[in-house]
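Quick one, tokens below:
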């Protein structure tokens, strides 16, 4: 089983806890150190429980508190070469650079990174696997490439980016240049793109679909949910929206083979 909880998700800060066996990973740290720690404690985790921090890319909403957190608690930071060199504060306690095409293992969790098309130096996202359960984090990408879709086949749960509603972005406060950046192939996934991705990925063991990285100006929980449900009609109870200003609860991701073994 893998369990995951978001410390928060949205255009002003992203951070996700992934736990399996005796291993705890923090994916991104887009809040101040103080806020990160407070939200972790709310989920029963202390910073010293974290074995490693993985960074998806260097944008502020993913790295804001990572330098101070790493130095204060001696946490190792895992990221690509490009992310490391572009991060504004990269004086980490220790750093492990990985190749975004090569899987690696941290404790009880296998991590399969994959490059993402986004306007960052060397961004990537991750599929996590433990006891056959697979969970993916898929935010900050302008388009779902064939490679991304291949990596996501068969996952049992995921965070998927629902950054904007098309109409709200068009009619909202953003100037045309910023709208174009968001919609570009190196920007963000909108609700419709996320819905069509989910339709392609859906399978009977897909248990938790967490809608993340919603823009506060250009989207709403209700619109994101209803758009996703037009693409994915079955089992709407699987879909949850992650909040920006508070942590989620824990979501348990279990592979069916694991359940079968437990039942024997
Ligand atoms: Zn972001
Ligand atoms: Zn980004």
């Amino acid at each position: 089983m893998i369990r995951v909880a978001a410390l928060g998700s949205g255009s002003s800060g992203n951070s996700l806890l992934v736990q399996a066996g005796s291993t705890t990973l923090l994916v991104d740290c887009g809040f101040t150190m103080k806020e990160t720690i407070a939200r972790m404690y709310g989920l029963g985790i202390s910073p010293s429980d974290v074995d490693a921090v993985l960074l998806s890319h260097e944008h502020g909403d993913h790295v804001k508190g990572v330098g101070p957190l790493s130095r204060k608690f001696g946490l190792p930071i895992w990221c690509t070469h490009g992310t490391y060199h572009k991060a504004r504060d990269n004086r980490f306690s220790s750093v492990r650079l990985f190749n975004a095409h090569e899987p690696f293992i941290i404790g009880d969790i296998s991590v399969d990174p994959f490059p993402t098309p986004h306007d960052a130096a060397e961004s990537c996202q991750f599929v996590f696997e433990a006891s056959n359960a697979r969970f993916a984090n898929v935010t900050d990408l302008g388009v779902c490439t064939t490679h991304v879709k291949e990596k996501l086949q068969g996952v049992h749960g995921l965070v998927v980016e629902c950054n904007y509603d098309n109409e709200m972005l068009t009619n909202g406060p953003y100037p045309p240049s910023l709208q174009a950046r968001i919609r570009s192939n190196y920007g963000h996934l909108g609700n419709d793109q996320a819905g069509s991705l989910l339709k392609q990925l859906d399978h009977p063991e897909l248990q938790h679909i967490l809608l993340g990285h919603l823009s506060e100006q250009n989207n709403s929980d209700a619109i994101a949910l209803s758009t996703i449900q037009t693409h994915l009609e079955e089992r709407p109870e699987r879909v949850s929206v992650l909040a920006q200003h508070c942590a989620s609860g824990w979501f348990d991701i279990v592979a069916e083979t694991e359940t079968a073994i437990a039942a024997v």
